[in-house]
Amino acid sequence: MTLQPVPAPVAPATVHFDRRELSLILALYGRMVAAGEWRDYAIGSGREAASFAVFRRTAERPLFRIEKRPALRLRQGAYAVLGEGGQVLRRGHDLGQVLRVLAPRPRLVD
Hints:
The protein has two helices and five strands; from the N terminus they run H-E-E-E-E-E-H. It has 110 residues and is an alpha+beta fold. The protein has one domain (19-99).
């Protein structure tokens, strides 16, 4: 009888935004910075979620958080936009559609 080696437990991988997701988020961020609405951001990643936080000023709490939670992709959707108090503003499967809640509305110019 030979003993088989026990495989080491695999640590769960961290969740990150991919290039396509980051380009969508940073395009919106660039438009809002140009409009003078947003000034700073922070990116975080963890075992359960990745987040992109938007700030009006550096020392404040984030105005919005864009989260990616792959565990929810089959239910409510992997992407969510959360407000300053943590309320869910929009959730869905398509990041482009979820980010529309933050996009500035077009205005008529005289």
